Amino acid sequence: MTVTVRGARRATGAVARLGPGLVLCVVGLLLSRADVVLVGAALAGGLLVARRDLLDVSLAVGTPTTRDDTGDRRLVAPVTLTSDAPATVLVRIASPGADPVGVLVAVDGDRTLTATLPLARTGRVPGFAAHGIAWSDGLDSVALLEDVAPTDAIVLPVARRLEEVPVPQRLRGLSGPHGSRRPGSGGDLRDVHPFAPGDRMRGIDWRATARRSPELDEIYVRRTHATSEAHVVVVLDSRDDMAQDIAAWTGFGEPRPDRPGSLDLARSAAASLATAYLRRGDRVGLVDLGRSRAQLRPGAGERHLRRILHALALARPDHGSVGRTRVPALQAGATVVLLSTFLDDDAAEAALVWLARGHEVWAVDVLPPVGGVLPDGASGLAWRVMRLERALRLERLAAAGITLVDWSAPARDVPGPTPEQRLRMMSRVRPGGRR
């Protein structure tokens, strides 16, 4: 959708030239001189006809889209200027959190500019606001262009390629990509057993039968392990979106569009994990802790992946919502992947409740590296206390047996494994000997 705003024009030179003709008309009326009125009307009319091409300039900003240039993601929108006469236009383009840019262009007809902005944010991203001023070549006409409000764009998160993701301890279903410990139709050999009611005829192993029972007193069958699938529920904590600049936490600054916030990291982690599990054949669901009814039941396939990505893009803090009053109930046997900043006890308490209910729980820390000018005084003390409480909260989760993954560790230069290395280590031999 394109928003077009017509310019508000003020023809200062034309008004000045029409002044003498109007004065003669008024004087002629006061003196009752028809000849003077005719002369004034002719003068004003001639100038009006001569200046009928008053400056007319329009400004249009197109709907912003995203563009990837060799890994560099940008927000792009066309800016169209239209003028019915040669004019010079000074346009100022701005976006929240970014430095405004001004450009001086000559316009005669239609001219299109392209506004670009380095982008690391996802979800609902504000577009470009534009306004400007135009004047004719003779400097006798000026058009003040009204402001064009920015149009929001929905930016989907980009999934990071994960070479290996861990297999949950508990599997579900009668078929899937993973071998289980129960007998059934599968690929891995379980044992060779005498034929019993319920065994299938095509499972008879004639070589084992001839070797173990030469007189064919018993028939032996090959029994295999059944295959199953994993049910993974991604729990997104969208109650807050913490920027890297701590000044934006208190509302004194706008988050920069070229620096991801905590919710952007959470969307990227959720999209990466969901893509890896769905393309492996597992089932993935989505729960939003910031919404009381935002939940996608575990599903499979590319269409379900698109639903998850769109739901992640629409997730954002809702300060007017009352949130959840209890921990969401999940399907039995599901593995919970909780993505949060863990700046309060709500997400940590929910993880402990799920662990007590028998779920396997992974906690993914998505707090970005905090920079900028750290506050002094009471604000600085509050930040240090919050940081210590958060560290104790994460230690409590680890002591309870919850696996921790620091998704923003590389950006903070924290010593230790990267998220990919951490997931690869989790993918090694699991309890019970299953890979």
UniProtKB/TrEMBL annotation:
The keyword ATP-binding does not apply. Residues 192-376 form the DUF58 domain. Keywords: Membrane, Transmembrane, Transmembrane helix. It comes from the Bacteria. Residues 425-435 have a biased composition (Basic residues). Residues 170-194, 411-435 are annotated as: Disordered. The chain crosses the membrane at residues 21-49. The keyword Transmembrane helix applies. Pfam families: DUF58. This is DUF58 domain-containing protein.
